[in-house]
Amino acid sequence: MLDSDDQQPPAQPPASPAAESPARGQVDPSSDVSRDTRTRLLDAAERLFAERTFASTSLRQITAAADANIAAVHYHFGSKDELFRAVFHRRVGPVNDRRLQGLRALLTAAAPAEPSLEDVLRALVEPAAALRATPAGRSFACLIGRSLSADGPHWKTIEREFEGVKAEFMPVFVRLCPELSTADLVWRLHFGLASLCMVLSDTDRLRLATGGLCDPDDVGTVVEQIVSFTAAGLRAPATASPTGPRAGRPSNLDSDR
Amino acid sequence: MLDSDDQQPPAQPPASPAAESPARGQVDPSSDVSRDTRTRLLDAAERLFAERTFASTSLRQITAAADANIAAVHYHFGSKDELFRAVFHRRVGPVNDRRLQGLRALLTAAAPAEPSLEDVLRALVEPAAALRATPAGRSFACLIGRSLSADGPHWKTIEREFEGVKAEFMPVFVRLCPELSTADLVWRLHFGLASLCMVLSDTDRLRLATGGLCDPDDVGTVVEQIVSFTAAGLRAPATASPTGPRAGRPSNLDSDR
DNA sequence: ATGTGTTTCAAACGATCGTTTGATAGCGGG
DNA sequence: CCCGCTATCAAACGATCGTTTGAAACACAT
Q1: pTM as predicted
Q2: For a tag site, which of A241, A256, B88, B133 has the least CB within 10 Å?
Q3: All domains of chain B, ordered by start, with CATH?
Protein backbone atom coordinates (compact mmCIF):
# COMPACT_ATOMS: atom_id res chain seq x y z
CA MET A 1 0.00 0.00 0.00
CA LEU A 2 1.06 3.53 0.64
CA ASP A 3 0.75 4.33 -2.99
CA SER A 4 1.45 7.92 -3.74
CA ASP A 5 3.46 8.27 -6.91
CA ASP A 6 1.67 6.39 -9.67
CA GLN A 7 1.73 8.00 -13.07
CA GLN A 8 -1.51 8.07 -14.91
CA PRO A 9 -1.77 6.54 -18.37
CA PRO A 10 -1.62 8.85 -21.37
CA ALA A 11 -4.74 10.55 -20.04
CA GLN A 12 -5.56 12.08 -23.34
CA PRO A 13 -7.87 15.06 -23.25
CA PRO A 14 -11.46 13.91 -23.53
CA ALA A 15 -11.98 16.01 -26.62
CA SER A 16 -10.75 15.00 -30.07
CA PRO A 17 -11.91 11.37 -30.50
CA ALA A 18 -9.13 10.81 -33.05
CA ALA A 19 -6.65 11.03 -30.22
CA GLU A 20 -3.12 10.91 -31.55
CA SER A 21 -2.75 13.83 -33.90
CA PRO A 22 0.85 15.08 -33.51
CA ALA A 23 2.42 14.12 -30.20
CA ARG A 24 0.45 13.47 -27.08
CA GLY A 25 1.93 10.43 -25.37
CA GLN A 26 2.65 11.15 -21.72
CA VAL A 27 6.22 10.58 -20.77
CA ASP A 28 7.70 8.53 -18.00
CA PRO A 29 7.96 11.02 -15.11
CA SER A 30 11.14 9.49 -13.70
CA SER A 31 14.52 9.98 -15.32
CA ASP A 32 13.24 12.36 -17.93
CA VAL A 33 14.86 15.42 -19.37
CA SER A 34 11.71 17.52 -19.63
CA ARG A 35 11.05 17.22 -15.92
CA ASP A 36 12.33 20.75 -15.67
CA THR A 37 9.48 22.40 -17.49
CA ARG A 38 6.93 20.02 -16.02
CA THR A 39 7.84 20.68 -12.41
CA ARG A 40 8.31 24.37 -13.06
CA LEU A 41 4.74 24.42 -14.27
CA LEU A 42 3.58 22.45 -11.24
CA ASP A 43 5.40 24.76 -8.85
CA ALA A 44 4.08 27.91 -10.46
CA ALA A 45 0.54 26.56 -10.64
CA GLU A 46 0.69 25.46 -7.01
CA ARG A 47 1.76 28.88 -5.89
CA LEU A 48 -0.69 30.83 -8.03
CA PHE A 49 -3.65 28.55 -7.36
CA ALA A 50 -3.00 29.11 -3.67
CA GLU A 51 -2.47 32.86 -3.87
CA ARG A 52 -5.48 33.50 -6.06
CA THR A 53 -7.88 30.74 -7.00
CA PHE A 54 -8.12 28.07 -9.63
CA ALA A 55 -10.78 29.99 -11.51
CA SER A 56 -9.05 33.35 -11.27
CA THR A 57 -5.61 32.11 -12.24
CA SER A 58 -4.98 32.08 -15.96
CA LEU A 59 -2.73 29.68 -17.76
CA ARG A 60 -0.83 32.68 -19.08
CA GLN A 61 0.01 33.77 -15.56
CA ILE A 62 1.19 30.27 -14.75
CA THR A 63 3.32 29.84 -17.84
CA ALA A 64 4.76 33.31 -17.40
CA ALA A 65 5.77 32.51 -13.82
CA ALA A 66 7.19 29.16 -14.91
CA ASP A 67 9.04 30.73 -17.84
CA ALA A 68 7.34 28.37 -20.23
CA ASN A 69 5.15 28.58 -23.26
CA ILE A 70 1.37 28.55 -23.09
CA ALA A 71 1.14 25.35 -25.07
CA ALA A 72 3.40 23.58 -22.58
CA VAL A 73 0.49 23.14 -20.19
CA HIS A 74 -1.57 21.23 -22.72
CA TYR A 75 1.41 19.29 -23.89
CA HIS A 76 2.38 18.04 -20.43
CA PHE A 77 -1.00 17.83 -18.73
CA GLY A 78 -3.71 18.03 -21.37
CA SER A 79 -5.85 20.75 -19.85
CA LYS A 80 -6.07 23.24 -17.03
CA ASP A 81 -8.21 20.87 -14.96
CA GLU A 82 -5.70 18.07 -15.24
CA LEU A 83 -2.97 20.48 -14.24
CA PHE A 84 -4.87 21.13 -11.03
CA ARG A 85 -5.23 17.42 -10.45
CA ALA A 86 -1.52 16.94 -10.97
CA VAL A 87 -0.66 19.76 -8.57
CA PHE A 88 -2.88 18.29 -5.93
CA HIS A 89 -1.83 14.70 -6.41
CA ARG A 90 1.87 15.46 -6.23
CA ARG A 91 1.83 16.52 -2.58
CA VAL A 92 -1.23 15.01 -0.93
CA GLY A 93 0.05 11.46 -1.37
CA PRO A 94 3.16 11.84 0.80
CA VAL A 95 1.17 13.65 3.48
CA ASN A 96 -1.36 10.85 3.73
CA ASP A 97 1.42 8.28 3.69
CA ARG A 98 3.02 9.95 6.70
CA ARG A 99 -0.34 9.97 8.44
CA LEU A 100 -0.88 6.26 7.93
CA GLN A 101 2.70 5.49 8.94
CA GLY A 102 2.25 7.41 12.14
CA LEU A 103 -1.05 5.72 12.96
CA ARG A 104 0.30 2.23 12.34
CA ALA A 105 3.35 2.92 14.44
CA LEU A 106 1.12 4.05 17.28
CA LEU A 107 -1.13 1.02 17.00
CA THR A 108 1.72 -1.48 17.07
CA ALA A 109 3.55 0.35 19.84
CA ALA A 110 0.51 0.38 22.10
CA ALA A 111 -0.84 -3.10 21.28
CA PRO A 112 -2.77 -4.71 22.71
CA ALA A 113 -3.87 -1.49 24.41
CA GLU A 114 -5.03 1.56 22.47
CA PRO A 115 -2.90 4.63 21.80
CA SER A 116 -3.90 7.92 23.36
CA LEU A 117 -6.41 10.17 21.68
CA GLU A 118 -3.82 12.92 21.52
CA ASP A 119 -1.29 10.72 19.76
CA VAL A 120 -3.77 9.62 17.12
CA LEU A 121 -4.83 13.20 16.51
CA ARG A 122 -1.19 14.20 16.24
CA ALA A 123 -0.59 11.55 13.62
CA LEU A 124 -3.47 13.00 11.64
CA VAL A 125 -2.66 16.67 12.06
CA GLU A 126 1.10 16.89 12.09
CA PRO A 127 1.93 15.80 8.52
CA ALA A 128 -0.52 18.35 7.15
CA ALA A 129 0.53 21.16 9.47
CA ALA A 130 4.18 20.46 8.65
CA LEU A 131 3.48 21.60 5.10
CA ARG A 132 3.54 25.16 6.35
CA ALA A 133 7.20 24.88 7.32
CA THR A 134 8.39 25.37 3.71
CA PRO A 135 7.31 28.01 1.19
CA ALA A 136 6.21 25.48 -1.42
CA GLY A 137 4.41 23.45 1.18
CA ARG A 138 2.74 26.55 2.52
CA SER A 139 1.35 27.32 -0.91
CA PHE A 140 -0.02 23.82 -1.16
CA ALA A 141 -1.41 24.02 2.36
CA CYS A 142 -3.39 27.09 1.38
CA LEU A 143 -4.59 25.30 -1.70
CA ILE A 144 -5.70 22.17 0.10
CA GLY A 145 -7.31 23.99 3.00
CA ARG A 146 -9.24 26.15 0.59
CA SER A 147 -10.24 23.34 -1.75
CA LEU A 148 -11.80 21.39 1.10
CA SER A 149 -14.26 24.15 1.87
CA ALA A 150 -15.19 24.92 -1.71
CA ASP A 151 -16.60 22.20 -3.88
CA GLY A 152 -16.18 22.74 -7.53
CA PRO A 153 -15.49 20.32 -10.33
CA HIS A 154 -12.44 19.12 -8.41
CA TRP A 155 -14.18 17.92 -5.27
CA LYS A 156 -14.41 14.26 -6.26
CA THR A 157 -10.74 14.30 -7.17
CA ILE A 158 -9.87 15.64 -3.75
CA GLU A 159 -12.22 13.34 -1.87
CA ARG A 160 -10.71 10.26 -3.43
CA GLU A 161 -7.24 11.23 -2.23
CA PHE A 162 -8.34 11.04 1.40
CA GLU A 163 -10.37 7.83 1.28
CA GLY A 164 -7.55 5.70 2.60
CA VAL A 165 -6.82 7.95 5.55
CA LYS A 166 -10.47 8.14 6.46
CA ALA A 167 -10.91 4.38 6.26
CA GLU A 168 -7.99 3.69 8.56
CA PHE A 169 -8.41 6.45 11.14
CA MET A 170 -12.15 6.22 11.66
CA PRO A 171 -12.25 2.80 13.37
CA VAL A 172 -9.54 3.93 15.75
CA PHE A 173 -11.52 6.99 16.75
CA VAL A 174 -14.62 4.86 17.20
CA ARG A 175 -12.72 2.62 19.61
CA LEU A 176 -11.18 5.58 21.45
CA CYS A 177 -14.52 7.33 21.93
CA PRO A 178 -16.91 4.49 22.74
CA GLU A 179 -19.26 6.69 24.73
CA LEU A 180 -20.00 8.93 21.74
CA SER A 181 -22.74 8.25 19.25
CA THR A 182 -21.65 8.00 15.66
CA ALA A 183 -23.22 11.35 14.89
CA ASP A 184 -21.45 13.04 17.79
CA LEU A 185 -18.12 11.55 16.77
CA VAL A 186 -18.50 12.58 13.14
CA TRP A 187 -19.55 16.10 14.07
CA ARG A 188 -16.58 16.60 16.35
CA LEU A 189 -14.03 15.11 13.99
CA HIS A 190 -15.51 17.37 11.36
CA PHE A 191 -14.87 20.34 13.61
CA GLY A 192 -11.32 19.27 14.28
CA LEU A 193 -10.59 18.97 10.59
CA ALA A 194 -12.25 22.32 10.03
CA SER A 195 -9.77 23.83 12.46
CA LEU A 196 -6.93 22.20 10.60
CA CYS A 197 -8.22 23.43 7.25
CA MET A 198 -8.60 26.95 8.55
CA VAL A 199 -5.02 27.02 9.73
CA LEU A 200 -3.72 25.42 6.55
CA SER A 201 -5.47 27.95 4.33
CA ASP A 202 -4.50 30.96 6.39
CA THR A 203 -2.53 33.60 4.53
CA ASP A 204 -1.00 35.79 7.20
CA ARG A 205 -4.41 36.99 8.33
CA LEU A 206 -4.27 35.37 11.74
CA ARG A 207 -0.73 36.48 12.38
CA LEU A 208 -1.48 40.02 11.36
CA ALA A 209 -4.72 40.16 13.33
CA THR A 210 -2.97 38.98 16.49
CA GLY A 211 0.19 40.99 16.14
CA GLY A 212 2.29 37.87 15.67
CA LEU A 213 0.86 36.15 18.71
CA CYS A 214 -0.61 33.26 16.73
CA ASP A 215 1.56 32.04 13.86
CA PRO A 216 0.16 29.35 11.55
CA ASP A 217 3.69 28.63 10.37
CA ASP A 218 4.85 27.64 13.85
CA VAL A 219 4.18 23.97 13.21
CA GLY A 220 4.81 22.72 16.71
CA THR A 221 2.45 25.19 18.33
CA VAL A 222 -0.22 24.69 15.69
CA VAL A 223 -0.19 20.94 16.13
CA GLU A 224 -0.43 21.12 19.90
CA GLN A 225 -3.19 23.71 19.78
CA ILE A 226 -5.32 21.73 17.35
CA VAL A 227 -4.66 18.42 19.08
CA SER A 228 -5.43 19.62 22.59
CA PHE A 229 -8.49 21.57 21.45
CA THR A 230 -9.91 18.69 19.43
CA ALA A 231 -9.15 16.10 22.09
CA ALA A 232 -10.97 18.18 24.67
CA GLY A 233 -13.91 18.53 22.31
CA LEU A 234 -14.00 14.81 21.64
CA ARG A 235 -14.00 14.13 25.38
CA ALA A 236 -16.93 16.46 26.03
CA PRO A 237 -20.04 14.66 27.31
CA ALA A 238 -22.32 13.28 24.62
CA THR A 239 -25.13 15.53 23.48
CA ALA A 240 -28.67 14.95 24.65
CA SER A 241 -30.17 13.56 21.45
CA PRO A 242 -28.28 10.42 20.36
CA THR A 243 -30.18 9.98 17.14
CA GLY A 244 -33.57 10.98 18.42
CA PRO A 245 -36.26 12.42 16.15
CA ARG A 246 -35.85 16.07 17.04
CA ALA A 247 -35.07 16.01 20.70
CA GLY A 248 -33.68 19.10 22.36
CA ARG A 249 -33.68 22.04 20.07
CA PRO A 250 -32.81 24.79 22.55
CA SER A 251 -32.72 28.11 20.78
CA ASN A 252 -31.58 31.18 22.64
CA LEU A 253 -32.33 34.84 22.08
CA ASP A 254 -36.00 34.51 22.68
CA SER A 255 -35.45 36.86 25.59
CA ASP A 256 -37.10 40.01 24.35
CA ARG A 257 -38.30 41.55 21.10
CA MET B 1 -26.17 51.42 17.24
CA LEU B 2 -26.97 48.18 15.57
CA ASP B 3 -26.49 49.72 12.20
CA SER B 4 -27.13 47.34 9.39
CA ASP B 5 -29.03 49.01 6.60
CA ASP B 6 -27.21 52.17 5.65
CA GLN B 7 -27.20 53.04 1.99
CA GLN B 8 -23.91 54.03 0.51
CA PRO B 9 -23.56 57.38 -1.24
CA PRO B 10 -23.68 57.47 -5.04
CA ALA B 11 -20.59 55.26 -5.03
CA GLN B 12 -19.70 56.13 -8.57
CA PRO B 13 -17.45 53.68 -10.35
CA PRO B 14 -13.82 54.73 -9.91
CA ALA B 15 -13.39 54.99 -13.65
CA SER B 16 -14.65 57.93 -15.72
CA PRO B 17 -13.49 61.02 -13.79
CA ALA B 18 -16.24 63.06 -15.46
CA ALA B 19 -18.77 61.12 -13.43
CA GLU B 20 -22.27 62.11 -14.39
CA SER B 21 -22.63 61.31 -18.06
CA PRO B 22 -26.18 59.95 -18.49
CA ALA B 23 -27.72 58.66 -15.28
CA ARG B 24 -25.80 57.25 -12.37
CA GLY B 25 -27.33 58.59 -9.17
CA GLN B 26 -27.99 55.73 -6.77
CA VAL B 27 -31.57 55.58 -5.65
CA ASP B 28 -33.03 55.52 -2.20
CA PRO B 29 -33.34 51.80 -1.44
CA SER B 30 -36.52 52.18 0.59
CA SER B 31 -39.88 52.88 -0.98
CA ASP B 32 -38.63 52.64 -4.53
CA VAL B 33 -40.24 51.14 -7.54
CA SER B 34 -37.10 49.62 -9.03
CA ARG B 35 -36.48 47.53 -5.93
CA ASP B 36 -37.76 44.60 -7.93
CA THR B 37 -34.88 44.36 -10.33
CA ARG B 38 -32.36 45.31 -7.68
CA THR B 39 -33.32 42.59 -5.25
CA ARG B 40 -33.78 40.07 -8.05
CA LEU B 41 -30.17 40.75 -8.97
CA LEU B 42 -29.07 40.45 -5.37
CA ASP B 43 -30.92 37.15 -4.92
CA ALA B 44 -29.55 35.66 -8.11
CA ALA B 45 -26.03 36.81 -7.37
CA GLU B 46 -26.23 35.47 -3.84
CA ARG B 47 -27.29 32.05 -5.07
CA LEU B 48 -24.80 31.83 -7.92
CA PHE B 49 -21.85 33.21 -5.95
CA ALA B 50 -22.54 30.48 -3.39
CA GLU B 51 -23.06 27.65 -5.86
CA ARG B 52 -20.02 28.48 -7.94
CA THR B 53 -17.63 31.22 -6.95
CA PHE B 54 -17.36 34.95 -7.40
CA ALA B 55 -14.68 34.56 -10.02
CA SER B 56 -16.40 31.76 -11.91
CA THR B 57 -19.83 33.37 -11.97
CA SER B 58 -20.39 35.70 -14.88
CA LEU B 59 -22.63 38.70 -14.86
CA ARG B 60 -24.50 37.19 -17.76
CA GLN B 61 -25.38 34.15 -15.68
CA ILE B 62 -26.59 36.42 -12.90
CA THR B 63 -28.68 38.67 -15.10
CA ALA B 64 -30.11 35.68 -16.91
CA ALA B 65 -31.17 34.11 -13.62
CA ALA B 66 -32.59 37.43 -12.44
CA ASP B 67 -34.40 37.99 -15.74
CA ALA B 68 -32.66 41.33 -16.15
CA ASN B 69 -30.43 43.02 -18.64
CA ILE B 70 -26.66 42.91 -18.45
CA ALA B 71 -26.40 46.65 -18.00
CA ALA B 72 -28.72 46.53 -15.00
CA VAL B 73 -25.84 45.38 -12.80
CA HIS B 74 -23.74 48.41 -13.59
CA TYR B 75 -26.73 50.69 -13.37
CA HIS B 76 -27.76 49.56 -9.90
CA PHE B 77 -24.40 48.65 -8.38
CA GLY B 78 -21.64 50.10 -10.52
CA SER B 79 -19.50 47.02 -10.98
CA LYS B 80 -19.32 43.32 -10.28
CA ASP B 81 -17.22 43.90 -7.18
CA GLU B 82 -19.74 46.30 -5.70
CA LEU B 83 -22.47 43.79 -6.45
CA PHE B 84 -20.60 41.31 -4.28
CA ARG B 85 -20.27 43.89 -1.55
CA ALA B 86 -24.00 44.61 -1.71
CA VAL B 87 -24.88 40.91 -1.57
CA PHE B 88 -22.68 40.45 1.45
CA HIS B 89 -23.74 43.57 3.26
CA ARG B 90 -27.44 42.89 2.88
CA ARG B 91 -27.44 39.81 5.09
CA VAL B 92 -24.43 40.00 7.35
CA GLY B 93 -25.72 43.09 9.11
CA PRO B 94 -28.85 41.48 10.58
CA VAL B 95 -26.87 38.41 11.62
CA ASN B 96 -24.36 40.48 13.56
CA ASP B 97 -27.17 42.56 15.05
CA ARG B 98 -28.80 39.42 16.40
CA ARG B 99 -25.45 38.33 17.80
CA LEU B 100 -24.93 41.58 19.65
CA GLN B 101 -28.54 41.61 20.89
CA GLY B 102 -28.10 38.13 22.28
CA LEU B 103 -24.83 38.98 23.97
CA ARG B 104 -26.18 42.14 25.58
CA ALA B 105 -29.26 40.32 26.80
CA LEU B 106 -27.04 37.70 28.40
CA LEU B 107 -24.82 40.30 30.05
CA THR B 108 -27.69 42.26 31.58
CA ALA B 109 -29.54 39.12 32.65
CA ALA B 110 -26.52 37.73 34.47
CA ALA B 111 -25.20 40.98 35.93
CA PRO B 112 -23.30 41.40 38.08
CA ALA B 113 -22.19 37.81 37.49
CA GLU B 114 -20.99 36.55 34.12
CA PRO B 115 -23.10 34.50 31.70
CA SER B 116 -22.10 30.95 30.99
CA LEU B 117 -19.54 30.15 28.30
CA GLU B 118 -22.13 28.06 26.48
CA ASP B 119 -24.64 30.88 26.38
CA VAL B 120 -22.12 33.35 24.96
CA LEU B 121 -21.04 30.86 22.34
CA ARG B 122 -24.67 30.23 21.47
CA ALA B 123 -25.27 33.94 20.99
CA LEU B 124 -22.35 33.97 18.57
CA VAL B 125 -23.13 30.80 16.67
CA GLU B 126 -26.91 30.62 16.50
CA PRO B 127 -27.68 33.65 14.31
CA ALA B 128 -25.20 32.43 11.71
CA ALA B 129 -26.28 28.81 11.85
CA ALA B 130 -29.91 29.87 11.57
CA LEU B 131 -29.17 31.10 8.06
CA ARG B 132 -29.22 27.51 6.89
CA ALA B 133 -32.90 27.17 7.75
CA THR B 134 -34.03 28.96 4.59
CA PRO B 135 -32.88 28.39 0.99
CA ALA B 136 -31.78 32.00 0.48
CA GLY B 137 -30.02 32.03 3.82
CA ARG B 138 -28.36 28.73 3.00
CA SER B 139 -26.92 30.22 -0.17
CA PHE B 140 -25.57 33.12 1.79
CA ALA B 141 -24.23 30.82 4.48
CA CYS B 142 -22.20 28.98 1.86
CA LEU B 143 -20.97 32.27 0.51
CA ILE B 144 -19.92 33.65 3.87
CA GLY B 145 -18.34 30.44 5.07
CA ARG B 146 -16.37 30.19 1.88
CA SER B 147 -15.35 33.82 1.76
CA LEU B 148 -13.83 33.63 5.21
CA SER B 149 -11.37 30.96 4.19
CA ALA B 150 -10.39 32.53 0.88
CA ASP B 151 -8.96 35.99 0.84
CA GLY B 152 -9.33 37.80 -2.39
CA PRO B 153 -9.99 41.43 -3.16
CA HIS B 154 -13.07 41.23 -0.93
CA TRP B 155 -11.38 40.26 2.30
CA LYS B 156 -11.15 43.75 3.73
CA THR B 157 -14.81 44.29 2.93
CA ILE B 158 -15.71 41.15 4.83
CA GLU B 159 -13.41 41.84 7.74
CA ARG B 160 -14.91 45.23 8.34
CA GLU B 161 -18.38 43.76 8.67
CA PHE B 162 -17.34 41.70 11.67
CA GLU B 163 -15.34 44.31 13.54
CA GLY B 164 -18.18 45.23 15.85
CA VAL B 165 -18.94 41.65 16.82
CA LYS B 166 -15.29 40.95 17.46
CA ALA B 167 -14.87 44.06 19.58
CA GLU B 168 -17.82 43.24 21.80
CA PHE B 169 -17.43 39.47 22.19
CA MET B 170 -13.69 39.33 22.79
CA PRO B 171 -13.63 41.03 26.22
CA VAL B 172 -16.37 38.68 27.40
CA PHE B 173 -14.39 35.63 26.38
CA VAL B 174 -11.33 37.05 28.06
CA ARG B 175 -13.25 37.38 31.32
CA LEU B 176 -14.80 33.92 30.96
CA CYS B 177 -11.46 32.21 30.32
CA PRO B 178 -9.10 33.98 32.73
CA GLU B 179 -6.76 31.01 33.02
CA LEU B 180 -5.97 31.02 29.29
CA SER B 181 -3.19 33.05 27.77
CA THR B 182 -4.24 35.43 25.04
CA ALA B 183 -2.64 33.23 22.41
CA ASP B 184 -4.45 30.13 23.68
CA LEU B 185 -7.76 31.96 23.72
CA VAL B 186 -7.33 33.32 20.22
CA TRP B 187 -6.27 29.97 18.85
CA ARG B 188 -9.28 28.20 20.32
CA LEU B 189 -11.81 30.83 19.30
CA HIS B 190 -10.27 30.61 15.85
CA PHE B 191 -10.93 26.88 15.85
CA GLY B 192 -14.50 27.34 17.00
CA LEU B 193 -15.18 29.82 14.22
CA ALA B 194 -13.49 27.48 11.76
CA SER B 195 -16.00 24.81 12.74
CA LEU B 196 -18.82 27.26 12.20
CA CYS B 197 -17.48 28.30 8.82
CA MET B 198 -17.09 24.71 7.72
CA VAL B 199 -20.70 23.96 8.57
CA LEU B 200 -21.95 27.16 6.98
CA SER B 201 -20.16 26.48 3.73
CA ASP B 202 -21.16 22.83 3.53
CA THR B 203 -23.07 21.88 0.41
CA ASP B 204 -24.63 18.51 1.19
CA ARG B 205 -21.22 16.88 1.41
CA LEU B 206 -21.41 16.09 5.11
CA ARG B 207 -24.97 14.83 4.90
CA LEU B 208 -24.18 12.64 1.95
CA ALA B 209 -20.97 11.33 3.48
CA THR B 210 -22.76 10.36 6.68
CA GLY B 211 -25.93 8.98 5.14
CA GLY B 212 -28.02 11.76 6.63
CA LEU B 213 -26.64 11.28 10.11
CA CYS B 214 -25.16 14.79 10.30
CA ASP B 215 -27.30 17.49 8.73
CA PRO B 216 -25.87 21.03 8.54
CA ASP B 217 -29.40 22.33 8.00
CA ASP B 218 -30.62 21.02 11.35
CA VAL B 219 -29.95 24.32 13.06
CA GLY B 220 -30.63 23.20 16.62
CA THR B 221 -28.28 20.25 16.42
CA VAL B 222 -25.59 22.23 14.66
CA VAL B 223 -25.63 24.95 17.30
CA GLU B 224 -25.45 22.53 20.19
CA GLN B 225 -22.68 20.52 18.57
CA ILE B 226 -20.53 23.56 17.86
CA VAL B 227 -21.23 25.15 21.23
CA SER B 228 -20.49 22.06 23.31
CA PHE B 229 -17.42 21.20 21.27
CA THR B 230 -15.98 24.70 21.41
CA ALA B 231 -16.79 25.16 25.08
CA ALA B 232 -14.98 21.93 25.90
CA GLY B 233 -12.02 23.07 23.85
CA LEU B 234 -11.94 26.43 25.58
CA ARG B 235 -11.99 24.71 28.96
CA ALA B 236 -9.06 22.44 28.11
CA PRO B 237 -5.99 23.08 30.26
CA ALA B 238 -3.68 25.78 28.97
CA THR B 239 -0.85 24.63 26.74
CA ALA B 240 2.65 24.29 28.11
CA SER B 241 4.27 27.27 26.40
CA PRO B 242 2.40 30.48 27.25
CA THR B 243 4.50 32.58 24.96
CA GLY B 244 7.75 30.74 25.52
CA PRO B 245 10.54 30.63 22.95
CA ARG B 246 9.96 27.20 21.48
CA ALA B 247 8.98 25.05 24.39
CA GLY B 248 7.54 21.62 23.79
CA ARG B 249 7.67 20.67 20.17
CA PRO B 250 6.78 16.97 20.39
CA SER B 251 6.80 15.51 16.92
CA ASN B 252 5.66 11.95 16.46
CA LEU B 253 6.40 9.44 13.71
CA ASP B 254 10.08 9.27 14.35
CA SER B 255 9.54 5.56 14.92
CA ASP B 256 11.17 4.03 11.88
CA ARG B 257 12.44 5.01 8.47
C1' DA C 1 24.45 12.67 -42.12
C1' DT C 2 19.88 10.88 -41.62
C1' DG C 3 15.66 9.72 -39.56
C1' DT C 4 12.67 9.53 -35.50
C1' DG C 5 10.53 11.04 -31.68
C1' DT C 6 10.26 14.53 -27.99
C1' DT C 7 9.88 19.24 -26.51
C1' DT C 8 9.29 24.22 -27.25
C1' DC C 9 7.66 28.18 -29.64
C1' DA C 10 4.90 32.15 -31.95
C1' DA C 11 0.57 32.85 -33.61
C1' DA C 12 -3.94 32.34 -34.03
C1' DC C 13 -8.71 30.15 -32.98
C1' DG C 14 -13.50 30.98 -31.17
C1' DA C 15 -15.68 31.96 -26.94
C1' DT C 16 -16.72 34.63 -23.09
C1' DC C 17 -15.61 38.07 -19.92
C1' DG C 18 -16.75 43.01 -17.53
C1' DT C 19 -17.96 47.27 -19.07
C1' DT C 20 -19.89 51.03 -21.94
C1' DT C 21 -22.92 53.28 -25.10
C1' DG C 22 -27.06 55.39 -27.04
C1' DA C 23 -31.64 54.78 -27.69
C1' DT C 24 -36.24 53.79 -25.78
C1' DA C 25 -39.73 53.42 -23.01
C1' DG C 26 -42.50 54.87 -18.44
C1' DC C 27 -43.91 58.65 -15.32
C1' DG C 28 -44.16 62.57 -12.61
C1' DG C 29 -45.06 67.87 -12.31
C1' DG C 30 -44.79 72.50 -14.88
C1' DC D 1 -47.92 68.99 -24.24
C1' DC D 2 -43.48 68.78 -23.01
C1' DC D 3 -39.71 68.17 -19.93
C1' DG D 4 -36.54 66.10 -16.51
C1' DC D 5 -35.69 61.79 -14.31
C1' DT D 6 -35.59 56.78 -13.67
C1' DA D 7 -35.19 52.34 -15.50
C1' DT D 8 -34.52 49.01 -19.12
C1' DC D 9 -32.89 47.36 -23.39
C1' DA D 10 -30.06 45.59 -27.61
C1' DA D 11 -25.65 46.00 -29.31
C1' DA D 12 -21.16 46.60 -29.28
C1' DC D 13 -16.41 47.66 -27.06
C1' DG D 14 -11.65 45.88 -26.05
C1' DA D 15 -9.56 42.47 -23.25
C1' DT D 16 -8.57 38.00 -21.82
C1' DC D 17 -9.71 33.34 -21.48
C1' DG D 18 -8.53 27.98 -22.58
C1' DT D 19 -7.26 25.58 -26.42
C1' DT D 20 -5.23 24.37 -30.96
C1' DT D 21 -2.08 24.48 -34.75
C1' DG D 22 2.09 23.84 -37.50
C1' DA D 23 6.59 24.49 -37.64
C1' DA D 24 11.10 25.02 -35.57
C1' DA D 25 14.65 23.30 -32.12
C1' DC D 26 16.51 19.51 -29.87
C1' DA D 27 18.32 14.77 -28.59
C1' DC D 28 20.04 10.57 -30.04
C1' DA D 29 20.43 5.90 -32.22
C1' DT D 30 21.69 4.03 -36.53
Answers
A1: 0.83
A2: A256
A3: 35-78 (1.10.10.60), 87-235 (1.10.357.10)
